């Protein structure tokens, strides 16, 4: 996802306030839901950042390798502030993967390679969502009914469901074509040179637009139907394959 450039101390204070207010307003059920969503959030951010790192490495940039980012260990990718923001404010980030486009091989243009590296993050989220949807359907198909009325079974299914939804949500969210999201880099190779230059010159304006869309809740309203529809579509296709 994206990083931040403002003072970390200020962010920690803001996040602490948001967390306290959020937790104070939660009932027992919602608090349990929040706890069950933690593994999904950690996994979603981990595979997302791994996707960026792995793609950059495959294009010839060993910067992510040197920094230990070609890893599925959550501790190599998580940012405590970003995790907390994603849990409580529904917008967050992992530790940004640093890449050096000058190290890319020249099989394709730097802009196209950068677009693919950017797309690799959301792509990993979608792949993860599909894999766990398959696991979810396989459980329904082959596991005895007693599993579904057992507390452990209910918890496992809830976590899997969160993994699917949060990965789809993170993937779609990052495809919004506004800085600092991945979508802003994905569209660059498809734009005329003048448009690319104009985007670079007005990047700060798009940051402001993004913040406005998030703060007003417009971004959430825009992508929520897409998240719901894509989640439903994946589950329907998987259930049809399994004959459920």
User: Strand tally, please?
Assistant: 0
- Number of separate helices: 10
Uncertain ranges: 1-6
Shape, per Cα inertia axes? globular
What do you see in this structure?
The protein is mainly α. The protein has one domain (8-242). Helix content is 69%, strand content 0%. It has 10 helices and no strands. It has helices at residues 8-24, 28-58, 63-66, 80-88, 110-142, 151-174, 183-186, 193-201, 203-215, 218-242. Helix 2 packs across helix 5 (110-142) and helix 5 packs antiparallel against helix 6. The protein is globular, with a radius of gyration of 19 Å. 31% of the residues are buried.
Notable traits:
244 residues, mainly alpha, 10 helices, globular, disordered N terminus
What is this entry, summarized?
By secondary structure, the chain is mainly alpha-helical. It has one domain (8-242). The chain has ten helices and no strands.
How is the topology of this model organized?
Blueprint: H1 8-24, H2 28-58, H3 63-66, H4 80-88, H5 110-142, H6 151-174, H7 183-186, H8 193-201, H9 203-215, H10 218-242
